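Input for the complex:
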Amino acid sequence: NAGVMQNPRHLVRRRGQEARLRCSPMKGHSHVYWYRQLPEEGLKFMVYLQKENIIDESGMPKERFSAEFPKEGPSILRIQQVVRGDSAAYFCASSPFQGANTEAFFGQGTRLTVV
Amino acid sequence: AQSVAQPEDQVNVAEGNPLTVKCTYSVSGNPYLFWYVQYPNRGLQFLLKYITGDNLVKGSYGFEAEFNKSQTSFHLKKPSALVSDSALYFCAVRDGAGNNRKLIWGLGTSLAVNP
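Predicted:
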């Protein structure tokens, strides 16, 4: 059973371009979480999705950021018109169900660098 | 409001000595508590969790944590530290009350084990 797969591992974008980050959850997991980690900082929650539904997007910036988790295929975090401040590590985690006592499993992250 | 505090940014300990990484929390209902470890340029790995039952929880790599309800703490411990334990450690809590399943994260504690 493969773990949470994120790709690409490293992504370089020029200011103004779009960044697409992909996350394939563990097999059987239908809940996906996205986090952002800035250098020397902790994890910041961005969005929580279940298949085809956004459950909680309270951590998403109001503009330029969007996320989806379609019925088929990976979850996508999309950042439009990237700026230097978007440079960070973006982590995806998945869990099998919504139980409060369930731990989440993390991917290796995508390191976005905006030049 | 739900919150997690890791009061120490960095902990230094000599190899072979016991280590403690501190975590305190605040939730309105019963807490579900988690510890994760992050090695350089890697994702987060689950170490252990407290849901209910015995206050002393044992996890991966010889780590354990003690839940203390009166002090609202969940400190991570290991009897004898290894150099390979050097990493970033995150504490997280989920409130067992209500329908909010979002994990609340501490800012992390950097553990350095010196040979």
